[in-house]
Amino acid sequence: MLGVLWAVGAVFVVELVRDTWHWLSHVWPWLYRHHVWHHRVFRRDLSVASLEIYRKAQFYNDLPECAVMLVFAIAIWQLSLLSHLPGAAASSLGILYTAGFMLAAIARGLGWPRARELTDVTHKQGPFTEPPSAWFVNRTYHWRHHFDNDNAYYCSTFTFLDGLMGTALSLKGKTVAVTGASGTLGRALLVHLRQAGAKVVAFTSRPEDVVIDIAGETTVIPTRQWSVERVEAVDLRDIDILVINHGINVYGARTPDAIQRSLAVNAASALALMDAFLAMVQTDADRARKEVWVNTSEAEVSPALSPLYEISKRLLGQLVTLKRLDAPCTVRKIILGPFKSALNPYGVMSAERVAAAVVRKAQSGQHNIIVTINPLTWIVWPLHEVLTSLYFRWFSKAASSAPTPVSEAESLS
Ligand SMILES: NC(=O)c1ccc[n+]([C@@H]2O[C@H](COP(=O)([O-])OP(=O)(O)OC[C@H]3O[C@@H](n4cnc5c(N)ncnc54)[C@H](OP(=O)(O)O)[C@@H]3O)[C@@H](O)[C@H]2O)c1
């Protein structure tokens, strides 16, 4: 058992070395001169632009990267042997693992038939069948390093280092729309998303444009009016990331009107927006770049002293859990504790800090963004989410009419 831990640990550290080297290759111009060969190779559909460049890139980039990994793999093995701890010898797996990559790079560099197809997994051609994954790098995740922002998405196998560096999601240049934009959290999100490099769009149910204050400067944000009654009229075509943030709290009311409004605003309109947005995910690029973030609240699992708020947010939370089983792009949930706002004057956190944390955690790649001071939420919410998701997976089916993925090549043709 200890041997397995040493072996897995060695592989993990070697991968960290690879990802750190990759990051260094982007920030250190001398290294970038060699690394850039790798970036010259691929077209947007991951076909190889030139076989000659592809082969060169193996010797200028992949092989040196493997050599650095090998040096560290040997050092880890030697150090672990010196520790005399049980199972330490198993850390030699790091060397074997790296040697495999080295041989593969040589085979690709020499142009051996099928070497690319068998060993260059993250650059394989073909339609993306899933959104960027959360823990392990898949093709959709890595595509973004080449064609979304090459100063992000550095990881090759585990997404750990991107998570640590906040490079698991680049907001730079992305068009991000926020509903409930004139509300307390809405405005704070617009500020932090903009500071992270996004082009923000305010979706509001009010007639006037949304204005925010950034470092003492008043800025009018491009604004689109929308209403819960006419969700289909909202133009979502140019939106890369939709943040569904609007909501109401009817407190202790339980009139028919309060029930209708809570369900319509907090759940039904959010679902309709999400459906409309997901229907626009058509191409491989959409699958890789588009995202929906849904602000559900920790009321999904804990009391908010407002039954209709809890009912409507729990319904929304469960619908998001159900829908993301088959979602064509990334769907993040935002699970917040009480913060001070028009909706909750008794909140204890500040919307400013909450918004900063939401954006930071999204950049770290978190698919479930929890910001709360309630320690129970950190235990109860993940447990509830995993069990609910498993239950939904086992007892429901994906629609057989699910759209077939359109490859980047097809979509560009
Ligand atoms: N405050 C908390 O303690 C807390 C905790 C957890 C989660 N949340 C969630 O965080 C989100 C933002 O809340 P907040 O605290 O910032 O409250 P807020 O200041 O009241 O903002 C909510 C915004 O939702 C929009 N909205 C309200 N009624 C609407 C309607 N009928 N149709 C369309 N939009 C409507 C409004 O924005 P526009 O006028 O721009 O449309 C409103 O300003 C909500 O989803 C809330 O449930 C809040």
Structure, explained:
By secondary structure, the protein is α/β, with parallel strands linked by helices. The protein has two domains: 2-120, no CATH class; 175-395, Rossmann fold, CATH 3.40.50.720. Helix content is 50%, strand content 11%. It has 14 helices and nine strands. It has helices spanning 2-27, 29-41, 51-83, 93-109, 115-119, 139-147, 160-165, 184-195, 256-278, 284-289, 307-323, 351-363, 375-395, 408-412; strands at 175-179, 199-204, 210-214, 217-221, 223-225, 241-244, 291-295, 330-336, 368-371. The chain has a seven-stranded parallel sheet with strand order 5-2-1-6-7-8-9, with helices on both faces. Strands 3-4 form a two-stranded antiparallel ribbon. It is globular and about 70 Å long. The relative contact order is 0.10. Residues 408-413 have low confidence and may be disordered. Residues 180-186, 204-206, 228, 245-248, 265, 295, 297, 336, 338-339, 341-344, 347, 351 line the site of NADP nicotinamide-adenine-dinucleotide phosphate.
Give short descriptive properties of this protein:
413 residues, alpha/beta, Rossmann fold, two-stranded antiparallel sheet, binds NADP nicotinamide-adenine-dinucleotide phosphate, 9 strands, single chain
Shape: globular
- Low-pLDDT residue spans: 408-413
Give the name of the CATH architecture of the largest domain: 3-Layer(aba) Sandwich
- Helix segment count? 14
CATH topology of the largest domain: Rossmann fold
Integer average pLDDT: 94
Any idea what the radius of gyration is?
A: 24 Å
Strands ordered across the widest β-sheet? 5-2-1-6-7-8-9
CATH first level of the largest domain: Alpha Beta
Oligomer: single chain
